[in-house]
Known about the structure:
Blueprint: H1 2-22, E1 26-29, H2 33-38, E2 45-46, H3 54-60, E3 67-71, H4 75-86, E4 92-97, H5 98-104, H6 111-116
Amino acid sequence: MKLMHLKLLALLTFMFAMSSAWADPVWIDVRTVEEFTADHIEGDANIPLAEIDTAKLATQYDKNAEIMLYCRSGNRAGQAKEILEAAGFTNVVNAGGISDVRSLRELAESNSSAAQQ
């Protein structure tokens, strides 16, 4: 009976690890609220660089989750990456600027930016 429990535990652990590996990445825009309001990618989180709370993020996301960060040019995303990695997040990527992310994800310019013009 104990062997069966150990096998079940091993299987569940493996399944959890695999589901984390196949999970969609978390996309976080670290620009200011004003920048985000003017132009953003629908569905992505906005956590301005100055407001990053690693303890709160650790309650929302697994520290091994794939976290993709971006800003206007990639500079603030790089700073955010360093903050998250220092807090123990292991799979953080600086995806560059918002235009880079749109290109990477094959997304069109948002309506909010078109309305500004």
